[in-house]
Design goal:
360 residues; 76% helix
């Protein structure tokens, strides 16, 4: 399958995801997250590991896994703090650290994000260690600031991951391949993301189901916090249940979130023949499929159970993708600089590489 066909396929998937998001926004999001999400996590994690997560060292990924483990423990303890098994653990941590214990989960996201930059920039572990330690100290200092919480706790692992980084990944590929259809797909991508806030109809035939509303809220621990943060950040209105689930404002945000997540997953699967994430041993692929089916069953049984059981994998794939996100930005800069004439391709041993060369 050539890149033109893949780009045209992606344009079709963009329009499909956009149309479905308009009709059944919250249900589409829940379906995509529960069904497409786990298969995406499992296949991307193995694909990234096979490529050393695009870092300069073979073991760098360990220092992205560790903060994810700490983050997961904090989230699970805070979520199930009143359960008999963890009640005493919760009380001990809260007694010792107070709210700082729970805010430390956001520090882990901060550490992973900036550590990934070091894993891309440096080969020497001295520099990497300094970067990790510095990011940890800075994260602890600023962990209670509102901009820090908004960016790292809410937007980075959600909308920035599924929408912004997906767009950058698409742009990097389109520039690298000099693909007109690739650029067209990005234009459609941006159009679809913006149209939800331009055309905001309230269809008489649609009303969020009780199940979907409960699953989105999850006693205040669900994805409703993302919608609330989005509305508050852009000052779109005073948050209420009616605004979130029935008004043009709430529906536009719900549609955008559903579209961003759904297309993020579809984009991954549409590039199977290019990325070749399925080229793994048969036993591993069988294990991935079995785990995926089990994951979907957990969501069917109880959405909160599925969300918590898959929390580690969902965040791990975000953390492990950070180095690739940085490389996508670097690739965009290199390709753009080459197109504009600020850098020039140099053939070395029959291979083309980019070297810095300021145009005189």
């Amino acid at each position: 399958m050539n890149t033109k066909i893949i780009d045209l396929t992606n344009i079709g998937l963009l329009l499909l995801a956009c149309a479905l998001a308009y009709v059944i926004p919250f249900e589409l999001f829940l379906f995509s997250y529960a069904v497409l999400g786990p298969l995406h996590y499992l296949t991307e994690i193995s694909w990234l590991k096979k490529r050393d997560c695009f870092t300069t060292g073979k073991r760098d990924y360990v220092f992205l896994v560790l903060p994810c483990i700490v983050l997961t423990i904090i989230v699970l303890v805070s979520t199930y703090g009143q359960a008999p098994i963890v009640r005493h653990i919760y009380a001990a941590f809260y007694s010792a650290f107070g709210d700082r214990f729970f805010n430390f989960s956001n520090v882990m996201i901060f550490v992973a994000f900036f550590s990934a930059l070091a894993f891309v920039m440096f080969k020497d572990w001295v520099y990497k260690f300094v970067f990790i330690l510095t990011s940890l100290l800075v994260g602890i200092i600023v962990q209670n600031s509102e901009p820090f919480l908004l960016f790292f706790a809410i937007f980075l692992p959600t909308l920035i991951h599924v929408f912004v980084f997906t767009g950058l990944f698409m742009l990097s590929g389109a520039l690298k391949n000099r693909s007109a259809t690739g650029i067209a797909s990005i234009v459609v991508f941006i159009f679809c993301g913006a149209i939800f806030f331009i055309w905001r109809p309230v269809f008489n035939f649609y009303s969020i189901t009780d199940y979907a509303q409960k699953a989105v809220i999850l006693d205040g621990r669900g994805f409703v916090n993302l919608n609330v943060a989005f509305i508050n950040f852009f000052k779109m209105g005073k948050v209420s249940m009616e605004l979130l689930f029935q008004s043009p404002v709430g529906l536009s945000v719900g549609r955008f979130v559903a579209f961003a997540y759904t297309y993020h997953y579809l984009n991954w699967f549409s590039k199977t023949e290019v990325i070749k994430w399925h080229k793994v041993p048969a036993k591993w692929l069988a294990a991935v499929i079995a785990l995926w089916i089990f994951s979907v069953m957990l969501y069917v049984y109880d959405y909160k159970t599925g969300l918590m059981a898959l929390y580690f994998l969902s965040m791990l794939h975000v953390f492990l993708e950070f180095p690739l996100n940085y490389r996508s930005v670097m690739g965009i800069w290199e390709e753009t600089s080459t197109i504009l004439g600020f850098r020039k391709p140099v053939v070395v041993k029959n291979k083309v590489s980019i070297v810095g060369a300021r145009k005189k």
